[in-house]
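Q: Got a minute? One more chain.
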Amino acid sequence: MARPDDDSFLAALRDAVRLRDCIALALVPAIAVAVFALPVARRRSLAFAYGDPSLLTAYTAQFVHFDAAHLAANVLGYALVAGFGYVLAALSGYRRVFGVTAATYLVAFSPALSWLNLALPRNAVSYGLSGLNMAFVGLLALVLVAYGSRLDDRISVRYAPGLFFAVVALIALIVPRAGTITGIGAASVVVAAGYVLSARGSWPEKPRAGWGPRLMQAGWLDAGVLGVVTLFGYQFVGFDSLVGDSGIVNVYVHLLGFCLGFIVPYTALALGVLGPDRAFLSD
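A: Always. Here it is, folded:
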């Protein structure tokens, strides 16, 4: 596996990305499209009804859509957040972390997010990929920092919560609700700033020889910038249109998906359950 300073961006990208991984990631939108082709009555039976929940519909609801625009938006969102997340994870030596986490999302998060909807009892139906997409956004926040650590070794994954709290602060601005949300946003700004100051204070004056210069070369910096734009920009898609009487449960599930999507892999890394790919351990 090429280190950032050993090869061009495109060569490293070809070396890092695996066709089988791309095919596996493509199964999610493929299933969503296949389910959309089913009759409406059948799709309704696969959605998660709060008044009549089941283990089957808790899982299948993630792939159900009743409107082509809703399906297209969710599939495009998935392609962006999961796609960028995978590429950055592969380039930074966190492909295994991404793969294990993505599998966890698909197996456990899909039904879990549906059942957690029941924490806010109401007569409604839940469906769509958006909650799962937000979990991948949480993972994107983690791998962005991991990607930065491969370009400049003064950046450490242990400071990833700083980026996480910065996103939570943005969400609080996008969804102006009760004072609780405002308080969470303010607290998130303080915590994010604390992580930045802590990280900055512990940095050596210069990165390890050969690492820092690659950060400013074509491709490497561009990929990181696009990842940051996707991370912060997707919050406007995931939350801005949901403010209103019918949006509170969606906001709740989207925020829950984002938080769990970050916390689960970060905790696994912190506890040593997961770690960088072996090809990078000797860098």
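A: The two ends are 10 Å apart (CA to CA).
Q: Perfect, thanks.
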